[in-house]
Amino acid sequence: MISLSHLGREIHRRYDEFGPILVFDDGNKRYLSFGTADEQSCQLKSAPLQLQHEYARAMVAVLVQFDALTPPANITLLGTGGGTLASTLFHWLPAATIQTVDIRQAVFQVAQQYFSLPRDKRLSTHVSDAADFLRQTETGQCDLLICDLYLADGLDPLVLQSDFLDLCERHLSAHGWLVLNLWKEHREQTDCLEQLKQRFPQLLQSTTTDGNWILWASKYAEIADKKNARDRCVQRAPLAGFNLWSVVKGFYRHR
């Protein structure tokens, strides 16, 4: 295992069948790692709901596609990490029901103990393979499906499989949105984009400065025009704690 001393002091370590789970604290921020140089989660201790990674901000920014009067009511997150996305959505959307899925039970335990993942009836945790979870759930019940499936050594290859994309499409409600977190290298895999376009006619994409390729996709929902998107960013900015439009505008660059 490589040295992770740059993340601060190690405050927790455990192992499961998938490998190590480590928590670091530098006094200002707390980090989750699976034993590699890539951080799985980062949380600012003084403002735990202020997302720190640009790719995480780009994923949650899909909320600009929802009118304030009809926010997503049912949300599914595939991949949990420290639970920072789940916690943010839980507090931003007080009427939403959230399901978060991870194949590692220990990840949930660490997220709750060290990153304050809420223990509440509105937020349910499911220890499951992501594809198995989608197969076993009711069709068309999810308004927002966020896929952030990463293993210690990179993207879970499941995400790029056509059968998995079919399950994502099946899981979404008529006007629901899918969010995928990929690496920028996947932009070169034209078949990936074509597969998405076949299933999701509405597609927006942006590449973040930290090297992630984020896609927002929907079957039938209308894409908010640039002005509406910007207005919604202004409305949500105080809650976000960062310049939301600086993240969202990348998705509108080529429209």
Architecture blueprint of SSEs:
Blueprint (H helix, E strand, L loop, with lengths): L8 E8 L2 E7 L3 E5 L5 E6 L9 H7 L13 E5 L5 H9 L4 E6 L2 H10 L8 E5 L2 H7 L5 E6 L2 E2 L2 E2 L6 H10 E12 L6 H10 L2 E6 L4 E7 L7 H15 L3 H5 L7
Parallel strand pairs: 5-6, 5-8, 6-7, 8-11
Antiparallel strand pairs: 1-2, 2-3, 3-4, 9-10, 11-13, 12-13
Q: What can you see in these coordinates?
A:
The chain has two domains: 40 residues, no CATH class; 199 residues, 3-Layer(aba) Sandwich (Rossmann fold). The longest helix has 15 residues. By secondary structure, the protein is an alpha/beta fold. Strands 7-6-5-8-11-13-12 form a seven-stranded mixed sheet, sandwiched between helices. A four-stranded antiparallel sheet has the order 1-2-3-4, with helices on one face. The mean pLDDT is 92. A hairpin with a 2-residue loop joins strand 9 and strand 10. The protein contains eight helices and 13 strands.
